[in-house]
Amino acid sequence: PGGGGGGGGSGLWGPPPMPSGGGAQFPAAVESLLDGPFDGGGGWLLPPPPPPPPLSGTVLLRYPQCDFEIFPEQDLAPLTAQEVHSKCITISQAENPSFIPLATSSLISRHANSSSVNVTPLQEMLTLPSQISNVNTESSGVLQGLPTSSIVLDRPADDGYNWRKYGQKAVKGGEYPKSYYKCTHLNCLVRKNVEHSADGRIVQIIYRGQHTHERPSKRRFKDCGGLPDDLDDFSGNMGTSVRTQSDYEDYCRKPILPNGTMVGPLVEKMEDGDDQLSGSSDNQEERDDEVRIDDGSAGDVNERNVPAPG
DNA sequence: AGCCTTTGACCAGCG
DNA sequence: TCGCTGGTCAAAGGC
């Protein structure tokens, strides 16, 4: 028994807490992608299907801290960070002049200074579970990375809820250690399975169940160094969908390796709808944190919409 | 003191 | 029934 690591669960994930921040609504393009993809009824969703028709073109996902676009794959390869940055900014501003590029600009540009960066993440876009919060049935979700690249969460459990790790197993021949988390809330039965590769990169996150309580945002914020109460207002203003957005943004910020490595595609699967990925308001903090990273850390999140079968 | 992680053991489902 | 695999339990220990 190793013990240790306790008290907030930061030990395993090393890097300091990464707050979230901001608040922005999803563009119509994103909403359209979210409207139907998820199974709100019951069964687990099937593995990520081929990119839906909308992805064949250009879809802008606009997040407070992660502004990116689904680029045609052929366009991705030659892209440098600077190019991606430029492209993101251009598009985002074109779509919405008031949009303020956050992580994308700060992080990518930072990398652009040193060399070209791996922009592969842009090939895959993580699904936005936002609208999914409308589904009230038991739910679970999956964040699944591709074999060639994956994401690393500084704290996989840090999605706004409080989790307690209750087990870990080496599955798939020991190639992928899998961690099991429970929501620490009294009557909440939500569980989360985090599967990561040998190098510590998270390749899959599976949520099961639905939280029966509100997200303990303030506590999390406090842990992260404090966050304005405005975020609660934000949550309240945005309603349930916002919760998903914020939670989602948690993931958006997390694909930043401690050493600054940019990580790869992230695919999300949802089961039974999802309240799990919903969150209230890490936006502001996230924004701050993104700016705070200056030791080479950079994050790129690919967000792919994973339509539910049918 | 409380909460958390770690980790071996236990249990259930499946071929 | 047996073995494998995956999920969970619970004791030990750290913060």
The H/E string reads HEEHHHEEEEEEHHHEHE
Q: How much helical structure, as a percent, in the residues?
A: 25-40%
**Biggest β-sheet description:** 6 strands, antiparallel
**Uncertain regions spanning at least 5 consecutive residues:** 1-140, 144-157, 218-310
Shape: globular
Radius of gyration from CA coordinates:
18 Å
Write down the overall mean pLDDT.
44
Instruction: Report the β-strand fraction as a percent range.
Output: 15-25%
Number of helices: 8
Secondary structure layout plus pairing:
Elements: H1 28-34, E1 59-62, E2 67-70, H2 73-76, H3 81-95, H4 103-114, E3 125-126, E4 140-145, E5 163-171, E6 176-183, E7 191-196, E8 202-208, H5 217-223, H6 230-238, H7 240-253, E9 266-271, H8 283-292, E10 303-304
Parallel strand pairs: 3-10
Antiparallel strand pairs: 1-2, 4-8, 4-9, 5-6, 6-7, 7-8
Helix pairs in contact: 3-4, 6-7
This protein binds a DNA duplex (15 and 15 nucleotides) through residues 1-9, 11-12, 162, 164-169, 171-172, 178, 180, 182, 184, 191, 193.
